[in-house]
Write a structure and sequence with these properties.
CATH class of the largest domain: Mainly Alpha
CATH topology of the largest domain: Transferase(Phosphotransferase), domain 1
Strand order of the largest sheet: 1-2-3-4-6-5
Structural class: alpha+beta
Distance between the termini: 43 Å
Strand content: 5-15%
Shape: elongated
Number of helices: 17
Length: about 450
């Protein structure tokens, strides 16, 4: 018996589509039947036609051409494009086929938690925490669970750009705009604090600015639940000798012991974020993590009014109060911060909150599904959990020591008897591919759309 003839690349591509679970075999064959003859010459040309007609995303087509059909579907979720990767997993722009809703789907593949059990502990913790809060200015979690052995969190897809990218692109914010954005962030955090959650990683890249100009706080992956029973493994949530946070925005007391903090640690980070948004730079730019820590403990940043002469002195004092070294010298709550910011809001029109319905705009969705997500969108700082052990932070008069150690007593600050300590790191940045959306024949397009539904 002669050996079976090898299937053509086009046949392999079509079989990969049906095996992936994105489309059943009958639909694949019908689509192939209405595709232009010119597109049937090569698998790559046919894949391009599937992308141009909106059947596949560029990411999906590329994976299928490689024969990598696994992982494009997880239960009801279809992976449209990767948008981030962190220490514990990956985040995808995905579509929930039950309601056609776009979501940010964070997944922890089995191989990750089989390599190290603490990854699973952290992910399960995040799954629990992110479902504890619901607020218009906090990214919503729709669902969390396990499908096909994969742990996942399905989150609200937030269009727009992060605050860090907005400042990078457009320059420092006007005072009124900053007051409005951070008033919304404060409202979100006040709600989280009343639920017993401390964010511990507030920063401009964790604040999304929506198309209507509203703020959405991202990433509760590092959040601490007040009064919770802490894991014995300090690397899970931090502890003395294990610091969690981001070194440019972390509160001094969070360095000394990340689990011995209260909501005022978030207020310090808010102050640092406001400083960055109005000055265009970190409070202590440049230098090593250890140098940044020492500056948070013993120095004050360049006065905001020196970097941004349009910032009123009284507004700068609000930020200075937020960045007080001692927690007791900061505002008592985010509600108090909202009151402090209210006189600075200005009279700009207050547009309605962006909703998930806005994502149904056909062109926007089509662009997203063909990997036209702008750099600095939601995915610049995707929700992940990354923990690092701290290095010693000694008083400046003492020589530095290397390696994980107990933190020293707080150094004396240059301003009235204030002090603390700090270090850490969390940030996963990423961006997506760009693809030029081309037109196709109207009759074929409508037939394709019918087949999809």
């Amino acid at each position: 018996m002669p050996p079976a003839a090898e299937s053509s690349p086009i046949d392999q591509f079509l079989k990969s589509i049906s095996r992936s679970g994105l489309l059943d075999e009958d639909k694949v064959q019908k689509l192939y039947g209405v595709s232009p003859k010119a597109a049937r010459k090569q698998a790559e040309m046919l894949a391009d036609w599937f992308v141009r007609t909106g059947i596949l995303t560029q990411y999906q087509a590329a994976k299928l051409l490689q024969g990598a059909e696994r992982g494009l579907v997880l239960g009801p979720y279809q992976m449209l494009a990767p948008v981030g990767r962190g220490g514990m997993g990956s985040v995808y722009l995905a579509r929930d086929t039950r309601n056609r809703r776009l979501v940010a789907l964070k997944v922890l593949p089995p191989h990750r938690y089989k390599e190290e059990e603490r990854h699973l502990t952290r992910f399960r913790r995040e799954m629990e925490i992110c479902q504890k809060v619901t607020h218009p200015h906090l990214t919503r979690t729709f669902e969390a669970g396990v499908l096909q052995g994969v742990y996942f969190i399905a989150m609200e897809y937030v269009p727009g750009v992060t605050l860090s990218k907005k400042v990078q692109n457009d320059g420092p914010l006007p005072v009124a705009r900053a007051a409005r954005i951070f008033s919304e962030v404060a409202a979100a955090m006040q709600h989280a604090h009343t639920q017993g959650l401390i964010h511990r990683d507030l920063k401009p890249s964790n604040i999304m600015i929506t198309p209507n100009g509203h703020a959405k706080v991202l990433d509760l992956g590092l959040a601490l639940i007040e009064g919770e029973e802490l894991p014995t493994d300090k690397s899970i949530v931090g502890g003395r000798g294990y610091v969690v946070g981001t070194m440019d925005y972390i509160a001094p007391e969070q360095v000394e012991n990340p689990t011995d903090v209260d909501p005022r640690a978030d207020l310090y980070s808010l102050g640092c974020s406001m400083y960055s948004a109005l000055s265009g730079q970190h409070p202590f730019p440049g230098g090593t993590p250890q140098q940044k820590i020492r500056k948070h403990l013993t120095e004050w940043p360049t006065p905001l009014t020196d970097l941004n002469p349009t910032a009123p002195v009284e507004f700068a004092k609000i930020i200075e109060k937020l960045m007080a070294k001692r927690p007791e010298n900061r505002p008592a709550s985010c509600a108090e911060l909202q009151t402090m910011l209210r006189p600075w809001l200005g009279d700009e029109p207050d547009l309605p909150m962006d909703t998930a319905v806005d994502n149904a705009n056909p062109r926007e969705v089509f662009d997203l599904e063909t990997d036209q997500i702008a750099t600095g969108s939601f995915w610049e700082s995707m929700p992940v959990t990354v923990f690092v052990s701290n290095t010693a932070t000694k008083q400046q008069s003492q020589p530095a020591r290397s390696g994980p150690v107990e933190l020293s007593p707080r150094a004396t600050a240059n301003r009235p008897a204030e002090s603390s300590s700090k270090q850490a790191f969390l940030f996963v940045g990423c961006s997506t591919l760009a693809f030029l959306v081309l037109g196709t024949v109207a009759t074929a397009f409508f037939l394709v759309m019918n087949l999809r539904h």
